[in-house]
């Protein structure tokens, strides 16, 4: 399996379990998940609804904590970190891209992109410079003073990517980034991710569209809280094609 | 997170829903305005009372002759002839006593040229002016030798002078009191109203002996209606009252168990109770006004809670991109603080404006003190923090995932 041997892995998850308390007792969502992602990988995570992939993504993003097991981010055990340290990880080490873009509606695009820098304590002039630079990069520099509702969904997602990149993270977590976009725009966004990956940024992306997953090099499939498949996308593609052939 | 961008965001959040922000602020405006206005009026009233007390003279007693009765008809206090100048001189020897001024006074018709005026004429000794903390602004006062010789000289108060002399300088002029000519030798400093609203400047002061012989004659030589007594200090007043009572009982040869044939009134105590009443009143006004400040604070809390709920998703986004709980807390706290401080500033202006308006319309004394403004400001800040803290804590404690899912 790819990445299994990496000792300086970006993400190392060992026998991770997560269950939610319900009235009928604890309900397990993730059951004994192991995963290693090395620097520079581009991983697509797929699975049907309720398979636990979103919960897994939230734990990777330090938005949620595991019930048991270990999660090492850049070699640091996340369980030992306090709230402030987690906030720092979310702001600096990880860049988030959401399905719903999640830009703040009352702020200009430039301020939206610069917001993580505000929480990181970066001075004003540098905040502006970096935000402009990243808006430039996603091709939206001329919209800097606009509000999010003045641009299209695809443009908003590009702004969200600019925001995710502003703290120069080494890891980008994207939760269904193309879920609300048409196929053409989706291709544009995926091309952008591929470009970032080519620059050495590690990317983990949740999707339920096989076409989107094809942009990644590695595919991880979740089913009922477990990883049922982990391999290169080329292999998965061949596998799917073979299945299709057999069916016909 | 740094303060400057946070203030900017708080400002933007306030501007995002102007009507709501304004109405929330209005609670603070009314609260602070009411407190400032009430304090201004209350302090004004206290000032007016303390002014009257000061013009009366400090540490004062009045010793009145007893109320005699003849054939079942009882006369009022001071009507008897039991109090004499010698009594007054004896009181003056007591160690607790600073000065005494025996007085014989009454109303009399006064004539100057074609003007006439009915005013209070006080016969007393030169010490009267000292006891009453009164000054002569023009001319001079009479002396002990004037009292000994019963000269016909007079000091005139401002109101009496205006009514009789109508702008002329009274000093050196001769007026007639009950047909007796008196030379005006001095004009008294204006004193204003007494506690009971009497015009203290509507008066003429003459030597005691002259008053006794020419104006308010008494069949008993040396008798006076009352003696004004000034104690050496406020602390000495209870001891002074006891000593005077003992002295007068001894001088009047009153047996054990017999009633006093004189009365001692502590004027300072009366003034103090008046001051106390005003203080209580202004405290009450302030307390009532404070309640509206409290209600304003609750209004802020209410709107901040609504705001936190409305912006749950925004909070989730902020947490996901690196905001610490403390950043979220500070952001909402700043917003509450800004609303309350802005409300406070407007309220301060409204309160001061209201106080000036009250002053202009009713001529009530108002005192706008910097300390009242400062107190209002501090209280508004405290209210902003106190009522902003709970919603802010609620916002900071939100679970990032729950907050992100919130629609």
How would you sum up this structure, described in words?
The complex is a heterodimer of chains A (248) and B (407). Chain A has 248 residues and is of the alpha/beta class. Chain A has one domain (11-247): P-loop containing nucleotide triphosphate hydrolases (Rossmann fold, 3-Layer(aba) Sandwich). Chain A contains eight helices and ten strands. In chain A, the strands form two sheets. Chain A has a six-stranded mixed sheet, with helices on both faces. In chain A, strands 2-1-4-5 form a four-stranded antiparallel sheet, covered by helices on one side. In chain A, helix 3 runs parallel beside helix 5. The longest helix of chain A has 16 residues, at 183-198. Chain A is globular, with a radius of gyration of 18 Å. Chain B is of the alpha+beta class. Chain B folds into two domains: 3-52 and 273-405, no CATH class; 60-232, no CATH class. In chain B, the strands form two sheets. Chain B has a six-stranded mixed barrel with strand order 4-5-10-7-9-8. In chain B, a hairpin with a 2-residue loop joins strand 4 and strand 5. In chain B, helix 1 (3-16) crosses helix 11 (325-362) and helix 2 (18-56) packs antiparallel against helix 12 (370-396). Chain B is elongated and about 105 Å long. The mean pLDDT of chain B is 86. Classes of the chains: A alpha/beta (248), B alpha+beta (407). Chain A binds chain B through residues 58, 61, 63-64, 83-84, 87-88, 90-92, 96, 98, 102-104, 106-107, 115-116, 118-121, 124, 163, 167, and chain B through 1-2, 4-5, 12-13, 16, 313-314, 316-327, 400-401, 404.
